[in-house]
Amino acid sequence: MRVALLFCGLFYIAVITCEDAIPVYNVNDGDKIVGRIQTKAHFVDSLMNGNDAVVKVPEDAKVTKDKASPKDEVWVRFTWTASSILYEWDLNFKLKNENVIFESATLKQNKTNIQIFKPMMNFGNWTHAYSCKFVTTAANSNLPEKLPRMIMQSNKIQVFNFMKNFSEDVTTCPADLSAPDVGHWNLTNDKSEICLRFDGAIRLNVTYEAMNHAMESVLLNVPSSAYIIPSESYCATADASVNETTEQRLTLGFYDDWSLSYAFTRDANITGDKRGDHWILHAVTLKRKMMNVLTPNCLNPEKVETDELKNVKLLYTMNDRSYGCISDQIVQVDKDVVAHLSHMRVQPFMLSPQFFAEEKCSADLMTSDLIPIIIGAALAILVVIVLVAYLIGRARTRRQTYENI
């Protein structure tokens, strides 16, 4: 056992390939190392037969800087061969206003079958390394049944200002920080018209069974880079037009095979509204794939679970209004998953690209009502303090005058 552990440790030092280790690739420009990328990356392409084709980036992939990189840009190319197929994975990093932007990536197979990804992620200050637990991006695709995904796990990246090793200064992605980042998602119909807008910060509290059979909990932020899954989202049901439909669904994909779905309805039989002039959020579904990087020491890694909450009846709003709520809204999806929604602005069944007039949630209204009360109370207390101080000072002055007499 000790020999095996020692061998694994030595092997890790040599090529970084133990089971839980994350590959580290040096970006070479001739005989110079000009950058470093730590990532465990793979691609998933949903095939017509319903199965997923997975392409993994091997640990021995060759990584070079493209000599044609323009000024203020770094083009990085990964190349490897698997099953007689030559793979080329190109990453484009651009310097804008002293920030590094991960602008685009492409995957080629035998110089053809090009898949284009648009992460458009801000890596922060160009002198810093960038750290992020997960980067998940969907390819541009006109076929809703095909949605290639680029998944980069346990990332640490630096391609500018690289000095032998990662900088001590590190920019951490918003999804890994304690507060979730606000995302902006627009669902469009086949005419590219926006039918549903969803802005908000989403955090998930997930409970799972660990290896020792104890129940553990983690807080996970849904990244603002989450993408809309076309095959699981729709502006209208099959038997209705966008203007006539009573149901719309938005499904966001993120991490590695996770998705969060929101179903909205304006069906009076569901909303309970006799006049039929309101919409609600009436169902939430979370699909999650257990993995150690997100749910440490989970009992069943790679297991996919689905949690669904029906008849939610949240965000009750007039049809000609959008719903806005800065305050935290809690949705108990099931016994193992709690969703926290904040900084929301939501509008399904849209007739124009702009949000309708906002209808604020009761929590925000309560806060706005309390502010003048708090300010008024504070001013009243201040007046009392000043008055008491004045009376005390006046009494002391009289006493001193009397003593002098």
UniProtKB/TrEMBL annotation:
It is found in: Cell projection, Dendrite; Cell projection, Growth cone membrane; Cytoplasmic vesicle, Secretory vesicle, Synaptic vesicle membrane; Early endosome membrane. InterPro entries: Lamp2-like_luminal (IPR048528), Lamp2-like_TM (IPR048524), Lysosome-assoc_membr_glycop (IPR002000). The keyword Methyltransferase does not apply. The gene is LAMP1. Residues 371-398 form the Lysosome-associated membrane glycoprotein 2-like transmembrane domain. This is Lysosome-associated membrane glycoprotein 5. Residues 180-351 form the Lysosome-associated membrane glycoprotein 2-like luminal domain. Belongs to the LAMP family. It comes from Trichinella pseudospiralis. Keywords: Cell projection, Cytoplasmic vesicle, Endosome, Glycoprotein, Membrane, Signal, Synapse, Transmembrane, Transmembrane helix. Plays a role in short-term synaptic plasticity in a subset of GABAergic neurons in the brain. One of its GO terms (biological process) is establishment of protein localization to organelle. GO terms for cellular component: late endosome membrane; lysosomal membrane; plasma membrane. The chain crosses the membrane at residues 370-392. Its main location: other. It is a single-pass type I membrane protein. It comes from the Eukaryota. Residues 1-21 form the signal peptide.
